[in-house]
Amino acid sequence: MHIPDGFIDLKTAATMSIFSLSGFIFSIIKAKRYFRAKVVVLMGIFAALIFAAQMINFPIFVGSSGHLLGAALVSIILGPYAAGIILTVILVVQAFVLGFGGISTLGANSFNLAIVGVVSAYLIYKLITKFSKSRAVFYTAVAVSSWFSVVITSVFVSIELAISGTYSFGLILSSMVTIHILIGIGEAIITTLVVAFIDKVKPDLILTRNWDRKIEAFEDTKKNSG
Amino acid sequence: MNRRDKIFIFAAILAAVLIGTFLSPLASKYPGGVEKVAEKLGFAGKAASFNIKFLIPYYLFPGIKNSFWQTALSGFIGVLIVLVIFALIFGIISLVNKIKNSKSKTLNNK
Questions:
Q1: Considering Cα of A180, then A182, then A188, then A190, what sign does the dihedral take?
Q2: Is the distance from CB of B75 to CB of B83 less than 8 angstroms?
Q3: Closest chain B residue to A33 measured between Cα atoms?
Q4: Mutation test of the interface with chain A: which of B1, B5, B22, B108, choosing the one with the most A Cβ atoms within 10 A?
Q5: Between chain A and chain B, how many beta carbons pairs sit less than 8 Å apart?
Q6: Rounded to a whole number, what is the distance in Å from the CA of B62 to chain A's nearest CA?
Q7: Contact (CB<8Å) A3/B27
């Protein structure tokens, strides 16, 4: 859901850059406790996986395509702060190394994916899993939150395009949401499959599920390395 | 970090490299969501590009004619760059922790 250069005006680009930069710094401060642990290794692995997955566009019925955002996936596995950092790093690499996404729109794209995508996914996931600790509820939360993260992000993209005077809000919103309702299904399927796979091979990796023991993953608990 | 963790890390990195390299050329060439809406509503022409020399412009690895390998190599290099960035972050944090630990040790010895 990358906005290319030229689609949003200067004031929107600048405002979004301030928002996303603040969010990025906030994520780093909040994720500081991760940084002491070897969770950075996990962040690198998931960043590489999401970067690769974002290249794989899957076709949807309306002559369009979508790809995994990954905001829900990393938020559910590593928590929202690590997710925000991961997605921002990916967007920076895409913008400056590959010319993909946009440079003037980097702030907006980072706001949409690393903040809106992550926060919406995480809140919905947390809200649903509050009801029960059962496996069925967990997987429902994974699927529903990843679908919503895509659709809600598309709403924010529409708002930014409309504020920039690119097109009228109503028409942009209805077109964007229609397409992303479909892309969101792809996001939900991929996210659920990946989470199910991790749940099978290394369940302790799903840090948000065992939040209290989170630092133990990949940490040698016998040695107190600090 | 036990043996199982190491295997997992290796397998996950390998998966990222393989997906980025060999699946990326098979990706759908249809326009993405935002591009499709822009085409439909008629503002696709607003897209601008900066006159910047990107390392791998638009996921097409320079100097190669074969379109499969253009995308495959750009995916490969892209994944490596992301990994290197996090390896650097990991390295810096480990170094800072090492310095902190040795400092607190020397203080304790005094």
A1: negative
A2: no
A3: B93
A4: B5
A5: 191
A6: 11
A7: no
The whole-model pTM stands at: 0.92
| Alpha carbons A19 and A111: distance in angstroms, whole number | 7
CA distances from B95 to A86, A118, B71, B101, B102 (A): 21, 30, 36, 10, 11
Percent of chain B with pLDDT over 90: 60
Interface test with B, best of A10, A45, A220 (most B CBs within 10 A): A45
Altogether, the residues listed in chain A come to a count of 226
A93 touches B at CB < 8 Å: yes
Q: How confident is the model at residue B104 (pLDDT cuts 50, 70, 90)?
A: confident
Residue given tokens 């969501």 in the structure block:
B33
Tens of pLDDT along A174-209? 999 999 999 999 999 999 999 999 999 989 889 888
Instruction: Tell me what ipTM this predicted complex has.
Output: 0.92
Is residue B86's pLDDT more than 80? Answer: yes
Reading the block at residue A100, the tokens are 């993909």
